Structures are given as structure tokens and as C-alpha cells.
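Tutorial sheet, problem 5. The two components below are modelled jointly, 932 residues in total.
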Amino acid sequence: MKQRLPLFSSLPGIASAGWLFALVGCHTSNDDIAAWQYVCGDEAPLPTEDVPAGTGQRCGEADSAAGLLPPEPYVGDGRGWPPANPPEACILKASRVTPPDGQVLPEPLLKTKEEEKTVLDTVRIQTALDTCELTKLVADGDNNAFLASRLAINGGTCDVDATRPGACVTCDGGKPCGKRLWIDKGVTLFMSRNTDLFQRTGNCGALGVNDSSACWEFLNIRGAKPELIGEGTIDGQGGEPGVGKDYSWWQASYALRAVNGSIGQPNMINLEKGTRQFVLYRLTLHNSAKFHVKLTSSPMDGIGPGVCDNKADRGKGFIVWGITLLTPSKWFNSAGYQLTPSWARNTDGVDPGTTDIAYCGTIACNVISTGDDQIAVKGGHWVENLSIAHNAFGTGHGMSIGSETYGSHYDAITMVTHRGVQKMDVWDLTIDADSRLVGHEAHAADFNGIRIKSDESRGGVVDQITYTDVCLRDMVNGILISTAYNPLFAGQAYPDFGVLKFKNVRGVNCHALSPSTITMEGFNATLRPDITLDNVQFDNINPTLSVASEYAAIHLGPGAVNFGDNLTRFPGVTVEDNRDGTVAPRECKFPTLPTQHAPDGWLH
Amino acid sequence: MNMRALTIAALLGSFVAAGGLVTSCVDLQKIPGDCQVNAAIACGMSAVLAGDKTATVSDEDLGLVGYSCTGELRPDDDGHFVQGVPFGSICGDMTPVPPDGQGPPTTRDYCCTAPDAQANCVLNRNRTEACPEGYAYQCWGPNRPEVNNPAVTCGNGLREGDYVNYCCQHAPRPTGCTQAKGATTCMGGLIGWVCPTTPVEFRPRGEDFGANESRADYYYFVCDVPTRAPNGRDNVYCCFSPSPVLPGGSCTYSPGSANADNGIACATGKFAFACYGRDRPDEDYFPRISCKDSGIAGTSDTGYAATLYCCDYVAPGQGSGAGTDPNE
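Model answer (C-alpha cells):
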């Protein structure tokens, strides 16, 4: 029997109480609810803080030294930050001014396609990207904005090397591989609001049409060693009305929510099949029309044995490090609509495995608050050897795997077929639903901590996954392992979840009106995940009413699990109980996360 | 164990436990027949399994029990509701198809969930006609029948309030339509499908996308009157996924209404709709439907009096229909 507890749970205060969120403090002395334990306050540093290197306090530095993470790009890999400036011809000066809150960057409706060359910055940026190894976007006096439609960063096509099958050593006939786009501090690259410039199938920008491939993407990344770096900002303007339209990308998407449909909008950063050794470093990402980062990349050395045996190697395929992702980034758009995370539908943060394989990667020291999954490991393509460390999440639908997990990749060199999502380690993660208002449209199911989701239409292998040192605040679904993500869908691609380990995980409450729920469901009697819970504790949980499970082999301990009693009451669940009760709950501290600037007079 | 006795006992037990809040889907007195446990039925071999399909799985692993039944009674006629939550057995009908020339078998074999492991589903005989290829279950929430009984496979569910209706059968579902990328002449924005016409006339369904598309993007289809493929056996459809019909909209997609018996016969490439009120399809199916005619009186697919329309899909760039912005 699959349980429905998560769907019936009430919203945390931030969603259901709206203004109450702004007004209510921590009720540590309320007699009516004195039995509850509250953990409020913001006490931890942001992982993106620019702490001097060599102090041991910089995010990820200690792990890199211990061989648990690859070196931080530039700061730790010997290249130094910032990079040296490129030649003058490769430094582009802004010719527009970033508008203040409540206004939108002016953009005329183009009368001819030819006009794009002169009205937008697309052509001059693309020309530089095509010719320069490093293109830098800089401010020019008060001018600090660029406006562009589709751009491509092509690191280069790998030369075939008969002596090293699958490896990439040189590109484009013996040249060094790599292209970089550097957006300088204080500079914003805006995506054009002209839907015609992204037209792919004819449905791009059309209202009410279910066509997820209707548009071309904004920044297309391909080839070997492409990099997007800098302390500037990329803004997709997803909440602003389109040019010549009275609705935004997000409004068009929201109109399809009732049918679970997906309108085609441009994704902000789209890595194309065959990309290798991609780096996304330090940038701030705002307001993508759809997903922010569709991530597919693999090492220059290929995917063979020995390429990615150690965690320190997990950077050879791709690195996302030190980015700040905040969507929406404003309280109101220029038309006066309030923008909330739940309004920004389908705005996933970072999605490895969306387009093709994602192998040997690190996502570290990032801050992500958005309207959909903060990270969604999309196992529709094979994903393996992935480290997700030292990240701080605000609003979003969770640290997710799935719902597609059917990925299959045949390696012609080793003649091995790789499947699903395997060898993924998440550690030092905070998810704080209290970081800002999410909007009254939010569903209870939108407040997820750790989520592994699939169903029989899109299932496959999810194996050797660990979650360590995780703090969750005010989640409706603290842990959600679901094999019936959408029970309407039929198929024979059954979810096959394997070894899943949780250690030092704690869920706390500050504003929530109900404790978290825990769901641990395998598919059926023959497809049961092997779940280890070691010091996994959720404050205020009701172990009888807030826990659901079926078809799972569960191992408890040695650390405490405060919802672990009597789990064998569920069908198909076996329990090995090794709890000794000696381990205290993880101490949880949450950083103050960036939010959109509230209008004057508003509390937050 | 006598299955009828088991069923009645289960019903009585539930009735007592629920304090009377029990309703039964069917009147067991009207279903003739008898079911007996039959250990000779190898249910472990019947399962449609994922992963290693050659792995040996015992009946015990799956928790399935074999039954043989006479008459029309099935072991899963034990379904009942407790405070709105369905409980019941789920059975795969394992009866072999008789050779040509032989009549229907006098007994039928089933592999069922054990009596003490009922699912949150009930056999729904009221929807038998909706499942010509199998049998109907109604389940609560996220429960699909094949999770509890891998001897059945089911199609996409259809929501009905808190419940989901499924059509199920033993063994994998037959191959239906195939998406035809580039093989059809569907205009921009329409998705082409090639569908077999035997043993039944298949129509495109969301599940036909298989695992290569996210079907959340394409779940609901509206399809034109098909053309016959060059092989003479298959139908070719052009379909789109509409936005939801506006609140108060009264037009429904009604492909079956467009036939000569109804006084209307939509030509190939046209989209057939039935409207119960004053709306027109181009008002309800924003923004890409255009209906030039005023419609004629007839009967909808569901048998109600309606105004029937044959309409055109308006390709992108050719202007829109008469619809309005659903956000307004």
C-alpha cells in the first residue's frame, strides 16, 4: 500500500500563513506547543563567501586538501583568480544600464531579423566567443548590462586519437581545447524577451500549447573545456512580459500547470551532448525561463576504468562551484505582478544528466533558491560519480534524483552498459524552507528535502547513493523515496532502487505547523531498496502518523533514528536494528540566504 | 478455501471493523461461480518482472496465490471500501486462449494477491466495457495494481476524484501506436502517430511515448480523423495536447461522434468536437482550433445530445482561432 501522507500534510507556515511568516517569531515559550522543539536563527556562513584561500575556512578547501573534492577552480587549481585579462578585442564593454527593481530592460520589437545585429548584443558577443579563447564582459561607466538572444560557447571539437580511444587531447586539428565566457562583477547578461528569437517548432512563446521543445536555449555549451565564469550575473527575465506580449514565460508555463504540461521555454544554460570538462564558477543566475543549468559533461580522458575512481577526480567531468542562484530575484515584475518561487514554475537549478550522460562531476559551495528542484539528478541518461558538497538551499522542491532514472549508456570501448544514477554522494547540505516567502500557489508537496522519485514509466537503477551531514528546516517531506511519482503513467520501466545511505541527517522546525513526513517506498516485492539510516532524526516527528514505507530492507543505526520503531508494520519491509542510541542529533545551523529585495515598508 | 466464503467473511469482518461504513462494488449474489485455491498454478513464472527477467522468482517471493474459478466469479470480486478507501485482491487472468474452434473454457485460472495482503484497489465491474482488452480496477491515491501483483500490467490511469481507474491484463500490454517523427505530414505543432488497426483500432495514448519522452509534457491528446497509411493496415494521426478546457467550457473532443450515423462525417485531417452549450470548440480549445461551420445537432461520444463540429487545427503563424487568453 503506497501511502499518501506527504500529500495530506499541511503546508509549513511560510506557505499557508503568508503574512504570518513575517510576523511570527520562534515560539519557544508558548505553553500550547511547548513540547515542540524549534531551531530558528541564521548562524552559519554562506558557502559562497570569499574567504581567503589557505586559511582552511574557505568552502571546500579542507575537503580538497583531504582528497574528498577536486580543487576549487582557479583558486585551487593553480590558475589563480581572477584570470588575466584577454586581448582588448576580447573585452566587450556594456552599452546598457541594468534597470532598477520594478523596471525592465528596454527592448524594441524587431521589424526584421537583420535588426538583431544592431539592436541586441548577440552578434558582437558571439563573434568574440567564436574568435577569443576568453571573452570578458565588462562595465563601461554606468553601463553594466548586455542583452542577447541565443549564444553558443564551443570549446572545440575533439580530435580523434587512435592511441587513446575515447580521450580528448587536442581540438579542431591540433589546437588547444577550451573557450571561456567571463562576466565581470557588477555586469549582467540579460536574455532577450523576444520569443521569436528562440523559435524552434513554431510554438515558442505561444500560450496554451504543450510543446516542451518549442524553443531554442539561451546559452548553448558544447565541445571540450567550455567555461562560464565570473562574479557577474545572467538574468533570464523569465518573469518579465515578452516583447510585444502581455505575459511572461512563467505566466505561459503556469497556465499549463493544471494539466501538468510543459510549455517550451528556453533553458538558461544548456550543455549539449558530448561536452567535456565544463566549469561553471562564481556566477549569479537569476530568473531563467525554464531550467537554469542542464548539465551533461564527461572527462577529457573519457569514461573508462581509472578515470574517476577517487572523489578528488570528480571534477574531471564538470564542476559547478560557488554560484548563487536566486529565482525569482525580484518581488514584482515591471507589470506589477508579484513574483514568487512557486510562480516560477519549472525553474530547476542544476540538473545533471538532462541531455546526455553526466559523469565524474562536482557541485560544491553553491547557494540555490528557486521555484523547482534545486538540484535534480536526471537519470534519463546515465549519471555516475557525482559529489554534491557544501551547498545551501533555500526555496525549491528538493535535492532530487529522478523522476527519470532509466538512463542507459553503452560504452563501446569497454563494452559495458551503464545504467541509471550510481555513486552519488551528498554531504554538508542545508535546505531551509524559511528563507523567503514561496507564494500562496505552493503545494505541500513542494517542500521537499531529500527526494528520490520515479515511477514505472521512467524507472531504472538508483544505487550507491549517500547523504551525510544534512540539515533540513520546515520540510513537509523530509525524506521522500517514491516509486509512484505519477501513478497515472504506465510502463515496464520499473524503479530499481538499490543501496541508499543516510547519516547524520536532521530535520528541524522553526515556522512549520506540522513535522516532516518520511516516505521510503520500493516498487514491489522483488524491487526493494536497501536503506541505511544512521543518526537520522527529525524533530517533533510522529513516528506513527508521519512515516510510510513499503517493500524496503531498512538498516537502523548505530546512531539514533527517532522514527525507526515498528517499521515492520508496513508491507514488504524488513528491519535490521543496530541502534545503540549513543549518537546525538546533528547540530544544525543555517546561513542567511539571499532573497529578493522587499519593497519599502515590507517586513521579511 | 472456498473463495466465496472467504469473500463474504472478508466483507463481514470489514463491515464490523468499520462500524458499518462499508459498501461493496458489486452484488456477489449476482455473480455465479466458485473459486478454489489451485497450487498447481505457477504464479512465480507469470510475473512481468523488471531487471533480470530470467531470474527465478518463487510464488512465495511474490506473495501470489493461484485460484481456479468456475462461472463468472473472480477471486478479486472481494473488493470493498472502508471509509472511502478501497481494499481488495488483484488477480491476473492466466487462462490460456483456447485453440481455434473451441468454445470458452469452463474454468479460469488466476494469480492473485494473498487474502491477507489486499491492495488499495478494487475490481470495478462497472467499468468492464471501458477495458475491452482486460479488466478494470479502481485504486486509491498512488497505488497501481501491478505493484501488488506483478502478474498484471495496466495502462495509464484515469483520475476520478481521489481514485484512479486502470485497465489491466495479464502479460505486457500490446504494442499500440508509434510516434512517427518525420514520417508523417502533420503540420507544425502537431505530433504524428502511426497506429495499428488490428486486433482493435488503436488510438494514440500518452503511454505510447514510452520512456523516451517525459509524458508530463504530452499527456492529453486531441487527434484528427486519421488517414490510412500506405501499407493499408495502419492509421496515421496528427495530434496535439491542448491547454485545459476553460472553466465553464462545454466542448469536448469527441472523435466517435464524427460518423455518418450522426449526420456528420468529418473528413480526414479534421478534428471532431461535441459541444453541449453555446460554446464553440474554437472558444474552448485555445488557441489553435478553427471551426468555420455552425455545427449540426447530433449525439456526443458519451451519448448526450450535442452540437457536433468538424474543425481545423491552425498552424503556428497562420493566426489563431477565436479563443481568448486563458489567463485573462
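Marking note: Chain B is about 10% helix and 30% strand. Full credit if you identified this.
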